Amino acid sequence: MGLRQKIIIGFCALALLLTFSGFVSFVELSRLSKRTKFVLDSGSESLEISKRMLDAVQAQNSALMYSFITGDNRNEASYKVAREQFEVALADATNLGNELKELEAIYHWRENYYQAVSGYFDTFTPFLYTYAEDEDEFLTTYRESYNELNSAIKDYMMASQNYLSNKAMQLEENAYRAITPGIITLVVCIMIILVFAYLIDLYYSRPITDITRGIGEYLRYNRPFTVKMEGRDEVFELKEKVNDLIALCKRRKDI
Amino acid sequence: MRLQVVIRYIGMVILLNAGFMLLSAGISYAYGMDSGFYPLLLAGVLTSALGAFPLIFVAKSEYISTKESYVIVVGAWLVACLVGTFPYLLWGGEFDVSTAWFESVSGFSTTGATALSDIEALPHGLLFWRSVTQWLGGAGVVMFALIVLPAMGRTKMSLYSVELSPLARDNYKYRAQKIVRILISLYIGMTTVQAVLLAMAGMSWFDAVNHAFSTIATGGFSTRNLSIGYYNSTSIELITIVFMVLSGIHFGLLFSAVTSKFSTLFRSEVVRYYLLTILIAGAVIGLSLWNGGLYDNFGSAIRHSYFQASTIITTTGFVTADTNIWTSFAVTVLILLMFQCGCAGSTSGGIKTDRVLLSLKVLRARILQQQHPNAVIRVRLNGITQDNSVVNFAMFFIVIYLLIVIAGTIVVTAAGLDLMTGFSMVASCMGNVGPGFGEIGSMSEYSAISPFLKVFSTLFMLLGRLEIFGLLQLFIIKWWK
Predict the structure, then answer these.
(1) Cα–Cα dist B305/B288, whole Å
(2) How far is the C-alpha of A123 from the C-alpha of A48, rounded, in Å?
(3) What gap in Å lies between CA B21 and CA A202, rounded to an integer?
(4) B66 touches chain A (CB under 8 A)
C-alpha cells in the first residue's frame, strides 16, 4: 500500500472515529435530555393529578355534607360527577407507572370511603330524620374513611415528589455516564493521533529530510547520494528518481 | 529501538483483546441481550480501531531485539489493562475510573482481587469479560497473541524469552515455537477439562467456564459474591484444588507428565517441595483450626484448610471460608504461602517456589562453607549446578521483592490502612493472590479502600506479574536509546 493511501486511510479512520464519538455523545445526551424531560413532566403531572384527586374527594364530601345537613337529594348528581373525576384522576395516577405503595393505600381507602357512603343516595331520606340514632356511628365511619383517603392522597403526592427527586439526583450520575462513551472514543482518537503523527514523521517527514540532506551533501561536497529507506512507497520512488537523476548528471559531466 | 515495530505488535495484542470483547458481547447477546451488550460491543469496536491502525502502516518485522521484546511485553500488558477498562466504564454501575482500572489490572495480572461489592449485579457478558482478562493474563497477553496470530515468524523467540522468568526457561527443552504451542494447548486443554468436571459437579455451564478460566490462570475472579463458597460442594472444591495445584506447576513439566510418564512430575525437586509445602501447610492449618474450635469436626477444618492453602500458594485467591476469624497461626502460615507461591513457568505469581528452594540451598551451602572454608560447594537444583549469576539474581530478586513489600506497606499505612490490612494488601497484590486479611479479608473486597489505594495497589500487581524488573526496565531512560 502506498503512502498516499495510508495517509488517506489514517485520516478517514480519525474522521470516522470523531464522527462516531460525536454520534455516541449525541445519542447519549439525547437520552439524558429525554430522562430530564421525563422527570420534569412527571413532577408537574403527579402534582396536578394529586390536586385533581384531592379536589374530587373534597367535592364528594361537600355534596354529601350539603345533602346531610339540608336533606336535599339533588346533590347526588354533583356527587357522582366528583366521583367520576376522582376515578379518572386515580386512573391517570396509576398510568404514571411510579408503582408507589402509597397508590395502593389510595385504592384501599377509596374502597373504605365508598363502602361508608354506599346506598346513601339510594335509600335517601334526610339524615336528620332517618339516621338520627345512627348518626354518630355513620359520621365516625365516614369521617375516618374520608380523612384516611385525604391523607393517602397527600402521602402519594409527597412520595411521588420524593421518587422524582431521587430520579433527578440520578441524573447527575447519568450525565457522567452519558459523556463516558464520548470521552473513551476521544481517548482512543488521541492515542491514534499520537501514533499517526509518529508514523507520518517516520515514513514521510524524515525520509524527505534525509533525501534533501543527501542532495545537499552531493551538491556541496560531491558526496555519494546514499539514503536508507524502509518500504517501497512514493518517497522511496522519489529517492530512486533522485538517484537516477544524479547518475544522469554524473554521466553528462563525464562526457 | 524501533518504536514502530513495538507499536505494531502491541496493536496485534490489542486486536486480540478486541476479539474477546466482541465474544463477550456475543455472550451478552446469548443471554437475552443483557445490559453488557452495548458496552462490550462499543468497547470492542473502539479497541479494534486502536489495534488495527498500526497494522496499516507498519510492515511485519522478521527480527525483534531483546529491548523491543521487553517494551512489547510490558507495553502490551499496560495497554491491555487500559483498553480492558472500556467495557467497565461504558457499563457504569459501581465502576468509576479507579475501580475499572483496578478490576482490569487485577484481571490481566491474574490477581483476582475485586473492588466490587456486588459481583452478581454484573451482566453475563461483563462477568465473562472479567474472567477472560485473567485467562489472557494467565497465558501471557503476548504469548497468546503469538500463537493466535501466526504472522510473526522468528520473532516468537525473542518475545517468549521476556515472558518467562529465567528459571522457567531452564526446563524447556523444545524449540521456541513448540514451547508456545505446548503452553497454549495445555492451557486450553486444562481449562476445558476443568470446565466439564465443574459442570458435572453441579455448576451451571456459564459458571463452570468462568471458574475454569479463573483457576487455570490462577486468577480468582468468581461469578458469585461468595466465590467457590457459594456452592458449598466438596466435589467442586476438590476439583478446584486439583486444578489450582496443577496450575501452580511448571507447564513444561505438566506437558511431560501428560505425554510421557506421570511420575516425571515428581522427579522435579521443585515440584516435590511445592507439593510437600501444600501438604504440610494444609495439615498444620487444619489442626490449628480444629484445635481452636472453629469447626465442628476435623473433616471440615481440613477441607477448608487445604482449600485456602492451595488457593493462596497458587495465587488463585478463591474463597470458601472467612480467614479473618482463623487462628493467628493459620493466618501466619497463609501469609508465608502468599510469599512462596507456585513454581516458575506456571501462571502463579509471587517469589516462586524455585527461588525459595534455591535460597534454602544457598543457606545450607553457606553454612557448609563456613564449616569447610576450602571446600568448593556448589548449589544444585533439580540435579543441575546453578550458575552464580542465577543464584545471585534469585537472592537479589527475593531481597528486592521483600523491600518493595515493606516500602509499599509503609505507604499504604501512611494512607490510613491498619498494619494487617496494609501489609496483606501489598503482599497479596505483589504475589497476584487477591484476598488479604483485615479489611480486605477473604469475605470482604477492595471496594472500601480509597481510589488512591486502589490505583496504588495496581502498581504492585503489575510489578509482581512482570517479575519486577520487566516493569522497571521501562523507566530507565538510557535503556530506550
Answers:
(1) 9
(2) 35
(3) 32
(4) no
- Helix A76-95 × helix A3-70 angle, to 10°: 160
Q: Which residues of A touch B47 (CB under 8 A)?
A: 188
CB contacts, 8 Å: A171 with chain B: none
Which residues of B are less than 8 Å from A207 in CB distance? Answer: none
Q: Are B218 and B192 in contact (CB under 8 A)?
A: no
Tracing cell 513457568 back to the chain, one arrives at B345
Q: Of the candidates B101, B92, B91, B9, which has an alpha carbon nearest to the alpha carbon of residue B44?
A: B91
Listing DSSP states for B364-410 in one string gives HHHHHHHHSTT-----EETTEEPPHHHHHHHHHHHHHHHHHHHHHHH
Give yes or no for residue B197 having a pLDDT over 90. Answer: yes
CB contact under 8 A, A185 and B58: no
A189-233 pLDDT tens trace: 899 999 989 988 888 888 888 888 888 888 887 777 777 777 777
Grid coordinates of B37: 451488550
Among A181, A185, A192, beta carbon nearest to B53: A192
Distance CA B401, CA B436 (A): 17
Residue at grid coordinates 458496552? B39
C-alpha–C-alpha distance, residues B329 and A251, integer Å: 90
Q: Would you give the DSSP letter of residue B434?
A: -
pTM: 0.80
User: What is the count of residue pairs from A and B with beta carbons less than 8 Å apart?
Assistant: 48
Which pLDDT belongs to residue B151?
37
> Rounded CA gap, B27 and B127, in Å?
10
For residue A9 the three cell numbers come to 486511510
Cβ-based contacts of B37 with chain A (< 8 Å): none
Euclidean distance between CA atoms B219 and B347, whole angstroms: 9
Closest residue by Cα to residue B145 from B288, B283, B9: B9
Cβ–Cβ below 8 Å for B56 and A6 = yes
Q: Which residues of B187-214 are buried (b: 16+ CB within 10 A; e: fewer)?
A: beebbeebbebbbebebeebbbbbbbbb
Contacts of A199 in chain B (CB under 8 A): 4, 7, 54, 57-58
Q: Give the gap in angstroms from C-alpha B24 to the nearest C-alpha of chain A.
A: 18
Give residue for cell 524524515.
A206
B92 Cβ under 8 Å from any chain A Cβ? yes
Q: Tell me the C-alpha distance between B350 and B434, whole Å.
A: 12
- pLDDT tens-place string over residues B348-367: 888 989 899 999 999 999 99
CB contact under 8 A, B4 and A6: no
B4 has a chain A CB within 8 A of its CB: yes
Mutation target for B interface from A21, A179, A183, A195: give the one with most B CBs within 10 A.
A195
Residues B249/B261, Cβ–Cβ less than 8 Å: no
Question: What ipTM does this complex have?
Answer: 0.79
The model's pLDDT over B368-385, given as tens digits with 9 standing for 90+, comes to: 999 998 888 888 887 888
Closest CA of chain B from A35, distance in Å: 17
- Mutation site, A7, A8, A27, A191, interface B, largest B CB count within 10 A: A191
Contact: A202, B4; criterion CB under 8 Å: yes
Model pLDDT, residue B152: 42
The residues that bridge with B384 in the sheet, in sequence order, are B381
Contact between B288 and B269 under an 8 Å Cβ cutoff? The reply is no
User: Alpha-carbon distance B219 to B216, whole Å?
Assistant: 8
Contact yes or no for B342/B247 (Cβ under 8 A): yes
Tell whether B97 is within 8 A of chain A (Cβ). Answer: no
Separation between Cα atoms, residue B255 and residue B183, nearest integer Å: 8
What residue type is assigned to position B158 of the chain?
A: S
